[in-house]
Prior knowledge:
By secondary structure, this protein is α/β, with parallel strands linked by helices. It is built from one helix and nine strands; from the N terminus they run H-E-E-E-E-E-E-E-E-E. The longest helix has 45 residues, at 32-76.
Amino acid sequence: MAPDFNQPPGPPSPQPLPGRPIPPPVAPKKGKGCFGCLVGCLAAVILGLLLIAGCGYFGVQELSRKTEAAATALKAQGFAEEASDTITKESVVEGKKLLHAKYAAVVSGGSDSDLAIVGMIASVDGRVHGSLYFRGGVLVIGPGAAIDGDVDVDCFIVIVQGYVQGQIKGKYQKLDESERKKTPPATLQPFPEEEKPAPEKAVGEIKPEQTPPPTPAEPPPAAVPAAPQSQPNMPDQQPPADSPAPPVDTPPPPPATEPTPPNPEPVPPAPAPPEPPPPSS
């Protein structure tokens, strides 16, 4: 059989066998394969989302159980608990406080003592005069924070952007210290000894380095002679008129008594002189 040069290049067409006809070519069905692939991908995505949701739900429940146990342990250490869904502290937290937040806790004013936080997410700024304790999910120590003690954690992620004087210890899965500061912020640094401002004095208070001027001693008051004590006179006794005054310090002795003469009888008044006669006219 001579070759057919008019046939396009490619695999040779099947030659009919003797006694058997050539079957017609079957055209492929379009669209069914792409639709099945789309359905399969969609089912895989839905299954993945369900798995993620289930893991997230059970993870949240497990984290909530762990935070409750951690809050109980921290209260046993002397922390006073304050519980709420979301806690925000813009002023200084006073005393040894436990902030028990169900979702998030934000502390921007610092604390004057040890501070403990329990929750999903916590953010701390300001100066903490003590150690920081965190139990939960994510802890962020902001750029305006200065922790005077250690940071004790039991969480997933710790991000440190501020100053921590002590160590970061405990359990965590990831620690990011790429932006951790080596010195506290300028607004939170202590004053040098020679630049400390003098404490305010109350009105009328004397500074310890100054001594009050000596006040002149007042002259003692002049001695006032005490009045002589009067002695009760007997009914038939009378002290003499010219007796000297008794001394001031000791009471005078009782004066000598003398019998008093009886009272003389009253003398009748002298008769009036006679009136002169009237002048004669």
